[in-house]
Write a structure and sequence with these properties.
14 helices; 11 strands; 8-stranded parallel β-barrel; 34% helix; alpha/beta; 412 residues; 3-stranded antiparallel sheet
Amino acid sequence: MGRVSRRAFAVAALSAFTMMPPASAAPKPDGKGGGGATTGMRGVWLATVAGRDWPSKPGLTAAQQRAELITHLDRAVRNRLDTVILQVRPTADALWPSPYEPWSQYLTGTQGKDPGWDPLGTAVEEAHARGLKLHAWFNPYRVAVHADPARLAAGHPARRNPHWVVTYGGKLYYNPGLPEVRAFVQDAMLDAVARYPVDGVHFDDYFYPYPVAGQTFDDDTAYEEHGAGFPGRAAWRRDNIDRLVRETADRVKRVRPGAAFGISPFGVWRNAATDPLGSDTRAGVQTYDDLHADTRKWVRESWIDYIVPQLYWNIGFAAADYEKLVRWWADAARGSSTRLYVGEALYKAGDPAQPAAWQDPAELSRHLTLAKEHAQVRGHVFFAAKDMAVDRIGAMARVVADHYGQPAPAPR
């Protein structure tokens, strides 16, 4: 969970190939607190970057934006879900009145412009009123989906601190190798956690950016200053991300002890051809090597409360078989207190550009059936809210009919 949407993430990753217990089951205690809630999850991502899911377009009135948000929450209830994961910091900005970063441009069309209401505060209140949990979804390091700092709001931290910023792939990123950046992004994110009774803190799949052919992420100066003692730049970069994860986990627990901290990475840690501990896949992207995110270690060391690998491929897909990846992640989670949920590609169902398996309304339902074979799988999260609203071929309706026959258990 840089590219503009998860759909773009998956398309780009797939182009490189070959070169999110079922809720009806009783949750099992796992010895690690998180969210003050049951260990299962029936979730949906609600993306705001570039208006992916919500708001439907910039410049809507506060009343219109609120009405659309409520519609998404009500739909989650109708589909017998229990969790909405709302993207509240898509591009170094905020969907709440932050003292650290400007209002998001995706609300009004102008970064820094007050939308006239508090989207995150409203979302938490209205979700809880409906028996839903609300996880606040943050992107730690993406600054902009363009490469022009002058387009950022006046006073933006990236304009005040240009040495924090790396231009890469036509986009702007904060440099994860700078300790002051790591501290700042945590402060900016934890402000929301301190202000609102969110049930969870959620990162997507962006750490170091996805590779762009022919381009180099220029962190030479930071590496020269901070990279001593590491065997190479890749190890130093992984340590930078490990520090972000460990520090954020610790701060979340101190600021809001009942909130869970979870991450939704790209679905392949490493291929078995690269590492015997890896999955039987031929992925063109490996989080350990390309994003410098050691997602398996975070699970094995129980650094995070939950993980939602984006297993956005169909059962039997040659380069990345859903069944093989569920099995691999279940093995990785076995013995850990990190809860495993599976990220599901609802957006692919009925998309004519996708393989034949995705034209079958039962494909997603089969995913949940298969996952029941693994006790470590505690639930599923669907990408994303707009696709749930459209449900082109009834794939989500089939999931609800086959697996969510009863309303989700009430939070406790």
